[in-house]
Amino acid sequence: MSQQGYVAAPPYSQSQPGIGGFGSPNSSLHYGHYGDPNSSYSAPQPGVSKSTVPFGSPAPVGPPPPGAQQFSQTSFQNGSGTPGQQPHRFQGPSPPSNTGPSYPPYSHQSQAAFPSTAPASSTAQLADQLNSMQINSYGPGTAPSSAVSPGHPAAFQGPRLLPPSQQQMGLPPAAQLPPPPANSVNGLCAQPALPPMARQGGIPGPVPPNPNLQHLPGQPPGPGYHPQQANYGPQMAASQLSYPGAFPGSPAQLSGPPQKKLDPDSIPSPIQVIENDKAARGGQVYATNTRGQVPPLVTTNCVIQDQGHASPRYMRCSTYCFPLTADMARQARIPLAAVIQPFAAVPPNETPLYLVNHGETGPIRCNRCKAYMCPFMQFIEGGRRYQCGFCNCINDVPPFFFQHLDHVGRRIDHYERPELSLGSYEYVATLDYCRVSTKPPKPPAFIFMIDVSYRNIKSGLVKLICDELKTLLDKLPRIGHDFEENKRHEWNNKKHLAVWKLEWGKQRWNESNLLDQIPELFADTNESETIFAPVIQAGMEALKAAECAGKLFIFHSSLPTAEAPGKLKNRDDKKLLNTDKEKTLFQPQGNYEALAKDCVANGCCVNLFLFPNQYMDVASMGLVTMYTGGTLYKYNNFQLETDSPQFLSDLRKDIQKKMGFDATMRVRTSTGFRATDFFGAIYMNNTTDVEMAAVDCDKAVTVEFKHDDKLNEDTGALIQCAVLYTSMSGQRRIRIHNLGLNCSSQLADVYRTCETDALINFFAKSAFKAVLSQPLKTVRDILMNQTAHMLACYKKNCASPAAVSQLILPDTVKVLPVYMNCLLKSCVLAGRPEIPTDERAFHRQLVMAMGVADTQLYFYPLLLPIHSLDLKSDAVPAAVRCSEERLSEGGAFLLANGLSMFLWLGASVSPELIQGLFNVPSFAHISTEAISLPNLDNPFSKKLKHILEQIQSQKPYTMKLMIVKQREQPEMLFRQFLVEDKNIYGGASYVDFLVCIHKEISQLLS
Ligand SMILES: [Zn+2]
């Protein structure tokens, strides 16, 4: 396997001053000017190279600035603004009904303005260079542990190595590059006039600009939108970096060769990596018997067999070989992290965890470090003692546990005891591990609390929930309930809350009547103000009184403005975007943190179902949910007819989720390193214990490790995660996951075992945590900076000597740039006035709790061509890259990111396919109002339905299907998920980003 997976020469030389405006010290460009109003959207044009014009910009608003455009062909839309510049104006579209992806970007006009073409000369040079980038050894993204000598990556180049001539790109002499414009950030002023549109698919004809999206020269920015005052705060070390989203936009002044169509196939493809791994490891048994072994990708289906290390479903690391010393770690700047999903669901063909019960003795633990008995304990002295693999302490083996050793020093009962031979298992805990150490816990309870204010009664939501609960109760055995109007709580004399409690183990009684009564009981309510914190408080008190842990299900529709604790005010303020104060939008108001802490202390998990039609302060309302391991659901502008299926599906799934309650997680490590930071839907009272009122199968905690000493190559880096929790049946248990990693004094070994998907999970969570305390620009800069450092360190230390101008990416992280770009332009990090604050807070909270498979899909959506389904096969077709170039007018594509799902139909998709899927005769007859496909009795329809179910079944959130027809307005919603393209909110295209990161690497190495 090649270690040097990707080699390319860049289009510029190191000495180029201020090329493209990035990194140029005198440039005011900063990394990620997402908040800039001047950003515009452009769609790549087939055959015209990826040249673009601003979204909705019908006319030039200024002369093109000279120079600095060498790389602008795909970047100039995202330029940053400077004072005095005319911003494009996105007239604030009203949030659409909950018909699609969560944030409502565009007005729903009949015609999308994907603008389109532009003089593309600027693309030429880069196109040339990228076209000639060599991609060798697109092997599986994971490298087998190998004994290759580091420092000679070329030695690992696979057989597909291209001729040397193709490894080098023709570098234009630096002198040919025009100097940067004096004010390169004004690039956006220089948008070219829109030429007659050449539409995707080659359909000529002008595109009526969307009146809501076009730029009106001379028009002031919209109300509340003062981007020119953006204050990026103090410059950081990383501030020299400029995210390509901040490129000046202008038509290129490039004096390059005649333009060529950019060949996207010449840059590393996430799909290629995914497919290669599937081909190499899919459908196989993956045995976890080797320390430091890199598992198959999360996107590869295989059967995992626990042979001594935890399944990657439970624990997945950013690298499977840690650098030996802190110095090495600092040099490489590869995050050392594990993403732990302790209750991950396992498929039926894999063995569930064994339960070990030592009775009153309880689990066997090291006397010194308290690590639990596991395969890393070394038995000595004939089996009478054991040495702890974590702290090296020698412990006596308890008499009841004694066993003789065989000729290799292994206990003869090795394979009979899960705790000796498996990576993951559970212990039954003794009373010592219980909250009240004198008695075992009671089974957890569920409490449902509905906001029965006027709006929810009138919308039918209350009745819907009550009706659903009637059927759900049947699915939960041994359930009883209490009903209480919460009048008894002092703040609430408003009768606007229905509460009832389901307790495991109680007798059922006729709750159906009650559920029928609730909607009637409150039918005449005219209460519109709601409370929120007292609701949680009441639920928590109820659990406390019942002496059990449990989960609250809270259904709520508005900002709690009633006079009561936790009262919130509307503090949404777009003026804060791209200022130092933007972070306050993500910080909670009021005293919700204290409430969250109380809930965690009482094992009270809060699930929140929000139905907003305006700002609800998700950052505050979601906080308790976040800290208690609960799940946040949000249905914008909920409509009974169209949104019920999604909501009910979420509710059903949630109630039936496997989970643990009243949980504490502790991560222990062998000597030389330790867990230093934790990211997730968790609460921490101290620096070591991760507390979760509950943890379900979809929640993952990402843990970062740091060295505190030198590691040991022989013993490796060992990790043990122990989760103490109460099971659904009320048993106190400890779930153990053990994983051993290698250590090496060779950086190449560290790179060779990197896992891009886990890295992105870590980067996303650390960044989304950081937005609470740092300006977003700083956060983006740090991400960019670290990425560049990681790659520069590889080039410097691990790759064979190469010209400064060569871009060299390690095979295992060659798609890190594309994922990193997706993270950088995600709605959380991209402060755009079009994206509602609540939407950003919502996405932030979701991602914080995600496991690796979920972040992978979230940041790089699945795009499936479904017009060419193989009806004979059960398999899901191979995905295509998330770029407009991959769409075809005659095709139909399914896109899913775990939260939203789209079926995109090309304008000339075959009538047979339309008939087969929709049972209508033509494209024009397809209704985009539909939220699901009809059940039709034909193989094509059945197959697609099957695929939809398959995709959905693995995801925690129910994805509402949106039908999108090419060239109709909702297509704009869909397009923002084409993450390799430039985003209309101002994110760079993949190509631009790659060029930018290359520049940064070159600077670091110069
Ligand atoms: Zn120990």
Automatic annotation (TrEMBL):
Keyword Repressor: no
Gene Ontology cellular component terms for the protein in this record: COPII vesicle coat; cytosol; endoplasmic reticulum exit site; endoplasmic reticulum membrane
First and last residue of the signal peptide: none
Biased composition (Low complexity): 109-127
Record localization: Cytoplasm, Cytosol; Cytoplasmic vesicle, COPII-coated vesicle membrane; Endoplasmic reticulum membrane
Domain Sec23/Sec24 helical, chain residue ranges per copy: 756-855
Keyword Protein transport attached: yes
Biased composition range(s): Pro residues: 93-104
InterPro entries hit by this protein: ADF-H/Gelsolin-like_dom_sf, Beta-sandwich_Sec23_24, Gelsolin-like_dom, Gelsolin-like_dom_sf, Sec23/24_helical_dom, Sec23/24_helical_dom_sf, Sec23/24_trunk_dom, SEC23_SEC24_subfamily
One GO BP: COPII-coated vesicle cargo loading
Domain Sec23/Sec24 beta-sandwich: 660-743
Region (Disordered): 1-270
UniProt xrefs under SUPFAM superfamilies: beta-sandwich domain of Sec23/24, C-terminal, gelsolin-like domain of Sec23/24, Helical domain of Sec23/24, vWA-like
Family: Belongs to the SEC23/SEC24 family. SEC24 subfamily.
Name of this chain's protein: SEC24 homolog D, COPII coat complex component
Species this chain originates from: Serinus canaria
Lineage: Eukaryota, Metazoa, Chordata, Craniata, Vertebrata
